[in-house]
User: What shape does this take?
Amino acid sequence: MAIGDVHSAHEVKANGAYLDVKPVSAGELWRVRGIYFSTQGVAEDIEVVRTDGSNEIPLEKSGADVTGYVGMPWVVSSTTWIRIKNTSGVSQTLGYDAIEIHAAV
Assistant: This one.
């Protein structure tokens, strides 16, 4: 892929499942532009964490009236990425979009 390319995904995830916002190629960097989810009207529908696969740092927890986050300054790589976790108790659609800011060499 190239600098400026848009990466996105929308997937239905069961309760307890997650969607990773993570480049596949080493050296690639993405700036996350938006995280989206269907709200089920319950507190803490989703949890957003920064992770390296072993350790997690909580960033956001949604409330009943929140359906996404837009304009975050988060940058992700193949070694440190964002994980969107479904904590709603039911299946829901999780999604993201990001722009590539550094291409793999």
Notes: The chain is about 0% helix and 50% strand.
